[in-house]
Input
Amino acid sequence: MILCENLYEMKCLIDSYVDLNPHIVQPSSEAKFKQDVMSNVSKKLFALGIQAAIDDKKYLTNLISNEYIHQYETYSF
Output
């Protein structure tokens, strides 16, 4: 499986998580959401056999979680 497909799978997992609890991305839950994203990123990278440094995991986590938070802030009423 190529990296793009694995990133897409990771996104689908997070999408499902957010669909179950859309308010997890609101500011008061941001830290918990980022923890959960970090967990998913770490598990997926491990499953791929990629030994990423913590800074790399944090970078991916921030990219992913910030996009969800931005969407929430943009489209919530």
Notes: The mean pLDDT is 87. The first helix runs from residue 3 to 20. The chain is about 75% helix and 0% strand.
